[in-house]
Amino acid sequence: MSIYEESLEYHSRGRKGKIEVVSSKSVSTQHDLSLAYSPGVAEPCRLIAEKEELCYEYTARGNLVAVVSNGTAVLGLGNIGPYAAKPVMEGKGILFKKFADIDVFDIELNAPNPDDVIQACEMLEPTFGGINLEDIKAPECFYIEEELKKRLKIPVFHDDQHGTAIICGAAFLNALEILGKQIKKVKCVFVGGGAACISSAKMFLQLGVLPEHLIMTDLDGVIYEGREKGMNPFKEAFARKTKLRTLAEAMVGADVVVGLSAKGAISPDMVKPMAADPIIFAMANPDPEITPEEVLAVRKDAIMATGRSDYPNQVNNVLCFPFLFRGALDAGATAINEEMKVAAVRALAQLAKQDVPDNVIRAYGGQQFRFGRDYLIPKPFDQRVLLWVAPAVAEAAMKSGVAKRKLKLQSYREWLETLLGATYTFMRSVKNNLKTISPQNHPFRLVFPEGDHPTILKAAQILKQEKIAEPILLGNEKRIRKRIEKMGLEKGLQGIKIIQPSQSDEIDRYATEYANRRARKGSTLVQAKRLVQSPNYFGPMMIALGDADAVLNGVSQSYPDTIRPAIHSIGVVPGSRLVGVYLLIFKKRILWFADTTVNIDPTAEELSNIATQTASFASQFMSGPPRIAMLSFSNFGSNSHPAARTVAEATELLKKAHPDWIIDGEMQADTALSPEISQTSFPFNQVPGDANILIFPNLHSANIAYKLAKELAEVELIGPILLGMEKPAYVLSQNSSVTEVVNMATLVAMGIQKRG
User: Which one of 671, 686, 703, 740 is at 20 to 30 Å from 372 when CA atoms are compared?
Assistant: First the structure.
């Protein structure tokens, strides 16, 4: 099936199109209805009538954008009309929602006359917090935008113009930095003469390019003073006093060429005489003015960007408009001005210089990205764009005087993190808490036996930079140093401690201690000395003898192969059990599952121990008390099966051991999680549908439950967290991401610091 056939099937299957309206408030009871509509709705209406600004308080207007088009310049399809433009506008809407949680109504206008578009938008102003103009042909788009800016008190933005300008502006700044070229000296040629071309040229001037160093061309050649053919007032602003008449002539000696025109507009022969290290942005879609392969054949020193995802440096407008509007709406901006656009440019340029998260690499099939010629701007699936661009835009709005709200930027950034998922919010609170309790004179020393693994190296850099831990890497030092250099992590991992176990002075001490611990388990000193030269044993022995605070292992190994050396080296707390716990972070609640990885068929006493350890650990990360539900297929004696009785006995043991804890069971999962079920059928339940710790009756149910949740629900997992060791030794899931390693390390650090 071709991509075109797939697209038709995608748009038509199930509910037609790509969008729907979903209620943000409950309307499940008569009381809800009376609040949502008559008579309750009259009160916000009265207040808004008295004070118009309260519309932002009591309606969705402050988070609602109109995507407006008359269909006169849709993609590369031209003037196909408003009906045919609708699939594109719906697509724009879902991008706003996905990347910045902004709601959209797409408005397709049967209005080829630009004045009709202006009038329609004026009449729609009370509905929307902002207007995104889309796919309107030039030069009418310039006139429409300028008039709406004058007449409306909400942000108006023509994405075809300014979105492209902002993103290629960021790529331009970074390309100059990589090449060591000065912006006031570079000569630029713009190819196209349309909306995006003119706006991009204006942006380059804003960034510092000198007007006399900028030439623009269109289908009729160079735009020069006195030219009459194909001119309009917007092109006139770029008419230069020059003898150049063709694009080929203009490109001789040029440092930069920006193509926003059509396939084949630039030939390899035009590229040959450009200046050294030319910057070539060929952004016509779907086919660029010249392909990277064609450029490479004649100039191996060129830096390129295109509008396509199958080439490096894709200039994709989704990097701009959701986040620009997010910052503008949240600041209550009355317009999107030049200061806000330039702020977005610089934020994108700076973000590209940061290390790329593991989830972005995974989204692109494992491809590695590092700031340089092939990575000038962030990728569209980099969630951090929201956290960089929106605050920069909001700050610029406040400084330039168009903001109606004053935001505290740190608090605003933390709020934006909530849009990226509950895990961001939870982990931020843990990190902030950790900073307040972590002693400065004794940083948390975390050992990584898999010291040469790329995931561990990236995680170590983050842990070190954010001062969560002082990582210690185990492995072949030369190999680790070489990999650090290859990955470009020298600066972030400067001064990091690397230990090659086989070369360590501690081998004899560790071997002697290990042999003593395993003396009645068949171990000899010779065997011990061989074992502790392995990072898997050396790391846990460091913890056992107090030379580090915790060990974290398992990214590249199976769970049993990782846990066994830790048990043999450190041991389990006397009278306790090993327990595997997962933290599940849903959008609106956080749950702890146990035991998910270790105990296959625990007794009542063992279940009680599992619950005790889980609650003791989890309570360190809770604002309120643990609420423990002992799960079964039975509700409070409804079934007398031995398995149900085991859970009931465990509940009684737990209540006797911890009379001040909130515990109940045995109960079914819905009784533990649904207040309605619990209150209706079991009013005596001490955990009335609000459990935050779920203790499963056996490994089968716990393991199945967390894996089902992972696959079927919108949930993020942290774990398995191994509890019950004599000293802190934790096992990572095989193939954990960098984020998962950092999250686990942060929880471990928090737990250890809270315990002193």
Answer: 740
